[in-house]
Design a protein that fits this description.
Strand content of chain B: 15-25%
Shape of chain B: globular
Mean pLDDT of chain A: 90
Number of helices of chain A: 10
Mean pLDDT of chain B: 86
Helix content of chain A: over 70%
Distance between the termini of chain A: 67 Å
Strand order of the largest sheet of chain B: 6-7-8-3-9-10
Structural class of chain A: mainly alpha
Oligomer: heterodimer
Low-confidence stretches of chain B: none
Radius of gyration of chain A: 24 Å
Radius of gyration of chain B: 20 Å
Low-confidence stretches of chain A: 1-11
Structural class of chain B: alpha/beta
Helix content of chain B: 25-40%
Largest sheet of chain A: none
Order of helices and strands of chain B: EEEHEEHEHHHEHEHEEHHH
Largest sheet of chain B: 6 strands, mixed
Shape of chain A: elongated
Strand content of chain A: under 5%
Chain lengths: 274, 272
């Protein structure tokens, strides 16, 4: 009888053996989860070549993930630029170096703030929508319908979003950088009245395309890989209920933000060492 | 000989436990769906009906010692590619329709045709309209699924399920949540489509009147076991208390209302 079986199990929850089992169980679960993540990531990577062949699917996702994130990136970029203009002016004024405001803001933005803040904004606006969309597609049997129709959902739904994310986040970062530099310019030159020539010439002299700009872009690309994979995975394994999708969305924001901040530290250390 | 027999779907000694939960769902189910027939798998909620469908479609792995044979192929032996190929012979109607919410009705029906055929756009367009006409919904081709009623969504999903003229049609609770008229329409469509396509249909349901009207063979499931099988006439005439209770929807009988478990007195700490 299934009933007796279940009753037997509930009894076993209190034994010594059960206590030992409880100790080991989180470890087994963690290994299982890591395996799931790696398997999912591998499946996505393997589907990239075939997904690239149907670019129309990717194009739609670039609009959803990238274009629709533009307003928040532009507005945030402008405000970050304003704040940097004020802060660097106040700090550098103490040392009589206000002509370096443009260069200091550009270096900070290219190497750190640009990629990290854009990634965090992208997680909030695009990654949450990825998790919710995939989670709801699973909850409403759309993913199952694809599987039963003999259509691979990883190729149809997951890989196009992943590729679109890889394209969108670095582009959004470039937009963020441009807007925030202009924000700093507006604050430092137009509002505070610093010399425009010093502002631009020092920025040009002290920042390098291959050192600073590409480091930021490289970071952005790495962030895009992890943020999108986390969002897609959380949506794909979300429990098919409203609570399940809600929790998956929260997990996406928490895990992706932490992973990005962690990788920012690792990549920065690597670049500084070299 | 495999492939020579007359069963479109065959389940032999099917056991299933959900991974990580270790709860037995199916305990040695045997079932045959003869070609061209409509077979109904009936039983209360939680009796393992939907799990059987998922095993037939290969969404769940077939456990060792169990056999799922679909159109002469052992599902357990198929690799991913072969499994997707096998699934093209199947059409499935999902409990919640499973329509793609980001596509119009016509695009939903066209989806399997785009994916699995090399037909021209204009041919696909005509085929989609014909499929939608067959379910009476040609007029809503340009609408989105969210603009349709539950019954209409189910019919669109049916049009999509038969887009590739499948050999085997699977229906997961096709009548649940529908008004009586929609239920009758869906039942009639299932019967007509089965005859028109020369397909085999497997219906998972607990709706007795509609199912008894159209099914050729009925399997009654209870807690993961087939407790009875026969034609609707045999089931209706049966004096077996279990079947009588289920078919006539009686509250009292051998089918327990409570899920099996420990005694109430024990749970309330009134007895040791």
């Amino acid at each position: 009888m299934p009933g007796n079986e279940q009753l037997g199990k509930s009894r076993r929850r209190y034994g010594t053996l059960a206590r030992i089992r409880r100790l080991g169980w989180p470890l087994v679960e963690s290994v299982y989860d890591i395996g799931m993540v790696l398997r999912f990531s591998l499946m996505v990577m393997l589907r990239i070549p075939s997904a690239l062949r149907s670019f129309s699917l990717i194009w739609v996702q670039i609009f959803t993930l990238g274009t629709l994130s533009l307003p928040i990136v532009i507005v945030s970029g402008a405000f970050i630029g304003f704040v940097l203009g004020i802060q660097f002016y106040t700090i550098l004024d103490r040392y009589g170096q206000t002509q370096l405001v443009g260069a200091a803001a550009a270096l900070t933005l290219f190497r750190e703030l640009g990629p990290v803040l854009t990634a965090l904004l992208y997680i909030g606006s695009a990654c949450t929508s990825i998790t919710a969309a995939i989670g709801l597609k699973r909850a409403s049997e759309q993913i199952a319908a694809m599987e039963v129709m003999g259509v691979d959902p990883i190729k149809q739904e997951i890989a196009p979003r992943f590729i679109a994310g890889l394209i969108s986040l670095p582009l959004l970062t470039i937009v963020m950088l441009g807007v925030s530099i202009m924000g700093t310019y507006f604050m430092a030159v137009i509002q505070i009245g610093l010399d425009e020539g010093f502002f631009w010439s020092n920025m040009q002299r002290l920042t390098s395309f291959y050192g600073d700009f590409t480091e930021g872009l490289f970071k952005s690309f790495v962030f895009a890989i992890f943020a999108n994979l986390i969002a897609l995975f959380q949506g794909y394994v979300a429990h098919p209920t409203a609570e399940g999708v809600a929790r998956a969305t929260t997990r996406t924001v928490v895990f992706a933000s932490l992973v990005i901040l962690g990788f920012d530290f690792i990549i920065t250390s690597f670049f500084v060492d070299n | 000989m495999l492939g020579m027999n007359d069963n479109a779907v065959e389940l032999n000694n099917l056991y299933f436990n959900y991974p990580r939960r270790n709860v037995r769902v199916l305990s040695g189910v045997n079932m045959q769906a003869p070609r061209g027939s409509i077979v109904a798998l009936m039983g209360g909620s939680g009796s393992g009906k939907t799990t059987i469908l998922r095993l037939i479609t290969g969404q769940f792995p077939v456990p060792e010692g169990s056999e799922v044979i679909v159109d002469g192929e052992y599902v357990a032996k198929l690799n991913q590619k072969q499994l997707y190929k096998m699934r093209r012979k199947l059409g499935m109607l999902f409990q919640f329709s499973g329509l793609f919410t980001d596509m119009s009705v016509a695009d939903n029906v066209a989806f399997p045709l785009h994916k699995h055929t090399k037909l021209t756009m204009s041919t696909i367009h005509d085929m989609v309209l014909l499929k939608l006409h067959a379910v009476g919904l040609r007029a809503v081709a340009t609408r989105f699924p969210s603009e349709l009623s539950g019954g209409q969504q189910r019919r669109v999903a049916l049009a999509r399920a038969m887009a590739l003229d499948p050999h085997i049609l699977l229906y997961d609770e096709p009548f649940s949540g529908l008004d009586p008229v929609s239920r009758t329409i869906i039942a009639k469509l299932i019967k007509d489509l089965n005859n028109a396509l020369g397909a085999t249909s497997i219906i998972i349901t607990h709706d007795v009147p509609e199912t008894f009207q159209i099914a050729d063979l009925i399997y009654l499931l209870w807690q993961g076991e087939v407790i009875s099988s026969g034609t609707p006439a045999q089931m209706s005439a049966s004096q077996e208390p279990l079947i009588d209770q289920f078919v006539n929807a009686k509250a009292d009988g051998p089918l327990p209302f409570h899920m099996p478990g420990g005694s109430l007195a024990k749970d309330l700490r009134l007895a040791r």
